[in-house]
# Entry
Amino acid sequence: MIKLENVSKVYGKGDLEVSALKDVNLKIEEGELIAITGTSGSGKSTLLNILGCLDKVTSGKYTLNNRNINNLSQKELSLVRNQSIGFVVQYFALIDSYTVGENIRIPLDYARPRISMSKKNKMVESALDELGILKLKNKYPDQISGGEAQRVAIARAMINNPEVILADEPTGNLDTKNTDHIVKLFQELNAMGRTVIIVTHDMKVADKCERVLEIEDGVIL
Ligand SMILES: Nc1ncnc2c1ncn2[C@@H]1O[C@H](COP(=O)(O)OP(=O)(O)O)[C@@H](O)[C@H]1O
Ligand SMILES: [Mg+2]
# Structure
């Protein structure tokens, strides 16, 4: 479902030029559970951002679900992102002035504006229930713990039922108990058929994945 062919990513120009990815070839099948590991600055986030259609390749070809992503406009890219991809980041990126329920509803408002508010609320509640955090619905982000915030961020990432879930250091700020819980959630989402790709430097997290990709200096080893 995911194919990168000779993909390179260069940031900046001239003296400031950084080659963050160098001639990467990668194939990921539907339903895989994958970890991407590597030291800081090796290109993990760059790779994830490209897979998540947040950023474009400098050269090479990215194919997602048989679609050539290179040729898409910004508008088409954001549509693919909203419909096919769920993104989870380390710092949760919840909006402080919105309740948990409202935070989770945002992607629905973008991707499926025609659904009624009551239907959206039902979808939000069932996502919260699935992750065991229904009781947090009317709380604000500063009223919940880090482990709870990460579960909320996962609920938000899966609300549009994306085929692919991308997580960038999702357990980077969590203690062991919460890390185990989050990894289990990803395993469950994967068991339900979703492709899950987790960037992590935690070997205990990587060990729970079916395939581990190691990246060094922009090259997949
Ligand atoms: N927006 C950017 N502008 C310039 N350089 C960047 C940018 N993002 C990342 N880089 C550089 O690209 C390289 C890879 O970064 P990144 O993908 O964030 O690595 P990782 O996630 O593995 O820590 C690093 O050298 C980093 O400094
Ligand atoms: Mg990173």
